[in-house]
Amino acid sequence: MTKKKITLMSAEKLSFQAEVSRLLDIVVNSLYSEKEIFLRELISNASDACDKLRYLALTEAALLGDDTEFAITISVDKTARTIIIADNGIGMNRDELVANLGTIARSGTAAFLGDLSGDAKKDTNLIGQFGVGFYSAFMVAREVEVLTRKAGEDTAWLWISDGRGDFTIAESEKAGRGSIITLRLRDGMEEYLEADRLKQIIQRYSDHIAIPIKLIDGDKVETANRASALWTRSKSEIKPEDYKEFYHHVSHAFDDPAETIHWRAEGIIEYTGLLFIPGARPFDLFHPERKNRVKLYVRRIFITDDCQELVPEYLRFLRGVIDSEDLPLNVSREMLQSSPVVQKMRQGVVKRVLGDLEKKAEKDAESYAAFWENFGAVLKEGLYSEHGSEQATLLKLARFRSTHGDALVSLAEYIGRMKDGQDTIFYITGEDGAALLSSPQLEGFKAKGVEVLLLTDPIDEFWVPAIGQFEGKNFKSVTRGGADLSRVKAEDKPEDEQKDETAEKDDDIGSLVALLKLALKDEVKDVRASERLTDSAVCLVADDGDMDMHLERLLRQHKQLDSAFKRILEVNASHPVIRRLATHVAARGAEAEIDDAAYLLLDQARIVEGEPVPDPRAFARRLSGFLEKGLA
Ligand code: ADP
Ligand code: MG
């Protein structure tokens, strides 16, 4: 403990960010079964630190000095009961130490911590999926020391904590750059003092690390991993577990990848891709920045994980690396933005990934459906942002819920099931599929067995109008314009019967509609007899050229719209209430009651639609009036 100079004067005591303390509580107290993963986490960090410095040294060789061979060294001291993990990577200065090992800065983490339930078992599961990185050291150590010196700086810093609420930082000394992490083991953790056990852990989780991991056992030094970049090995040599561990390392996530795509492109440009589709949604998937995290390497050297030109936004769920043979090592951010090589690689990534998804959709509908549940909403963004063949492929890949049962359908399947006389792809948009299913606007479609797509992602409001049609069939919202159902034959009823029904209704309804229109002239754009209602008395629809009602609500919620379009009120001529009203009007002409009935019908349609009732008091008064009469 005393081998480093700590002048108490300069030691500073700081508290962990509240979220870190919470995380540490769970890490330390929950019986996390795989304690051994602490080593994987610390090695992963050491490897990242070396990658970062290697990149900086491309433009500033002095940062390396004589120490040009990157390595991670692991040793134990059985008497002191410590494990020591050292690297000659970039190191940290004081501020970085405080920020990196005292707070959680990674995006999505707040949301993740919000998901913690307090139930140890569930939380452990979540953490297993999320990974706790550096803090996992406290699973095996009662105290952790980090002695670190940033490349290019003279001052070293010593960070010490027992993981309970606070840590101290003091100025210190260290020969050479990089970090030395010392774990003082808890009782019962003796197994981690055995070199063989450590070697086993390294080979299980860290074999893919491209930097040599040197294990020191007494006076024996052994490199415990293969120390070659995983993606450069041939596929036949790589075991599924190797891929999985590499995925954990590059993605900082701990689910199993749903898909592994490893390929080498040779030709005009050369590169290797090793990409993963995660098995679970990453926490930052819907972060407004919509950044991809795929790492760009140039000839095995890490360049950046922030090259947005490399992968389109709609594939931002991908994790992994692209390693280019053609880009210069000193490539700048500006160069990347306009590089034709990067453009070509992007095309390659898109082709490869979409091709893979097409195969998956064909071969294994069930696992494709699982993929779609996770990432369909993101992939659909491409329907809006892309054009040409990329868009066409995405349309083929798209799946939807529909009024035809629970299974997901493709547009091709939808078209295959269209009714005689149907030439339109019908859809309805809203937040929630189950709620959509009971929309009154769907009634006539259900009655005629016409399938309607249920679109519940906000992006659906944008790509559908932008694309307009698929294989010559127009998309049409069932909440907009005429229902276009007259040309579609009903399921079982012979045609003449349908006509009779219509003829019977026509007589009185005309004058009722005219009166309703008069009563509601300031509230609605039009009133008309409905073709789409069978059970409900009324519903609202948007006029053909107007904005869809759901989109309007969406924009108003996001304060991007403050005006409202007037809607069309449709009435169901075969509904008992409307029929009575029509007879009433035919017999007695317009009375004051018609006004109240008109407003009640309109407010009812608004409520079902999820729109606010503009005058709730008037609504209540009218409803009470009718109830009173009904009960008399
Ligand atoms: P992550 O690796 O996912 O960012 P960690 O909790 O594992 O999260 O590490 C937090 C941060 O601490 C890292 O992002 C890095 O900036 C810093 N860090 C950890 N270990 C080292 C190290 N050995 N050398 C330099 N920086 C490190
Ligand atoms: Mg880490």
Low-confidence stretches: 1-6, 496-501
Which class best fits the helix and strand makeup?
alpha+beta
Q: Going by CATH, what is the homologous superfamily of the largest domain?
A: Histidine kinase-like ATPase, C-terminal domain
How many individual β-strands?
A: 22
Ligand inventory reads: adenosine-5'-diphosphate, magnesium ion
Q: Describe the biggest sheet? A: 9 strands, mixed
Which strand order spans the largest sheet, edge to edge or round the barrel?
1-6-5-4-7-3-2-8-9
Number of helices: 21
Structure overview:
39% of the residues lie in helices and 18% in strands. By secondary structure, the protein is an alpha+beta fold. The protein has three domains: 12-228, 2-Layer Sandwich (Heat Shock Protein 90); 232-365, Ribosomal Protein S5, domain 2 (2-Layer Sandwich); 495-631, Four Helix Bundle (Hemerythrin (Met), subunit A). The strands form four sheets. A nine-stranded mixed β-sheet has the order 1-6-5-4-7-3-2-8-9, covered by helices on one side. A hairpin with a 6-residue loop joins β4 and β5. α9 packs antiparallel against α10 and α17 crosses α19. The longest helix is centred in the last third of the chain and has 25 residues, at 495-519.
